[in-house]
């Protein structure tokens, strides 16, 4: 390190955990911003500002964890690097919370078979199409809720005899996917840089059950309205 705190390339690579070759590529692509703070003492020697460490680390996280191409990363960083970092921290905290919940609530396959009257082939098909995502430890809380719903559906008459199969669940997943994507964009846009990641994760977690109730109630209203509309059309 130089007397004024600037870093040699080798020091920059060591502190960021990114190779010198990769850092040089970032420099060529203009990803590290204005190089006015770079002090070049010769053709092959330069010293770099310490804040490059955080910037390089963020770029690597966006590349490896978010699978973002460098062109997109450059645009994000040019727009607002602080907000980009806040978004990453917020997403990481939410994902960490979700994964912790999934790992602490697991029900084994044998227990599922004992507890619920659902044929093995139905469980297998739901897993094949990605509606259920069991692992070697069993099923997470959301999987169990889906299984319970399927059992109630079948008990109410939604069975194969009337043409209802596990593939009908795909209709709901396909409808929900764009809604969830928009929800995530909205939440992150409102929380990032405004709310601490821990607090944002708490807010999102507390909204899970009310959201389920809201969607259920709105679905019920829309179902009745559509039945009335079709009856009126006839």
From TrEMBL:
UniProt keyword annotations, A-Z: DNA-binding, Repressor, Transcription, Transcription regulation
Pfam families in the record: MerR_1 (PF13411)
Keyword Transcription: yes
InterPro entries: DNA-bd_dom_put_sf, MerR-type_HTH_dom, MerR_fam
Domain HTH merR-type: 6-79
KW Signal (keyword) present: no
SUPFAM superfamilies associated with the record: Putative DNA-binding domain
Signal peptide residue numbers: none
Superkingdom assignment: Bacteria
GO function term, MF aspect, one: DNA-binding transcription factor activity
Name under which the protein is recorded: MerR family transcriptional regulator
Organism: Baekduia soli
């Amino acid at each position: 390190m130089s007397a004024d705190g600037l870093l040699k390339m080798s020091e920059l690579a060591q502190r960021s955990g990114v190779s010198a070759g990769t850092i040089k590529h970032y420099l060529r692509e203009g990803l590290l911003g204005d190089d006015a703070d770079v002090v070049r003492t010769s053709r092959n020697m330069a010293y770099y500002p310490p804040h490059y460490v955080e910037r390089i680390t963020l770029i690597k996280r966006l590349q490896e964890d978010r699978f973002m191409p460098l062109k997109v990363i450059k645009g994000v960083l040019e727009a607002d690097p602080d907000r980009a970092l806040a978004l990453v921290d917020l997403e990481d905290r939410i994902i960490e919370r979700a994964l912790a919940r999934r790992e602490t609530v697991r029900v084994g396959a044998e227990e599922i078979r004992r507890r619920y009257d659902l044929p093995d082939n139905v469980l297998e098909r739901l897993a094949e199409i990605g509606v259920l995502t069991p692992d070697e430890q069993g099923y997470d809380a959301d999987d169990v809720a889906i299984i319970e719903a399927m059992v109630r559906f079948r008990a109410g008459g939604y069975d194969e005899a009337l043409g209802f199969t596990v593939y009908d669940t795909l209709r709901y997943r396909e409808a929900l996917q764009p809604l969830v994507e928009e929800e995530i964009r909205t939440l992150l846009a409102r929380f990032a840089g405004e709310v601490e990641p821990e607090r944002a994760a708490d807010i999102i977690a507390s909204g899970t059950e009310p959201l389920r109730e809201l969607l259920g109630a709105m679905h019920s209203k829309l179902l009745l309205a559509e039945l009335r509309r079709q009856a009126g059309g006839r």
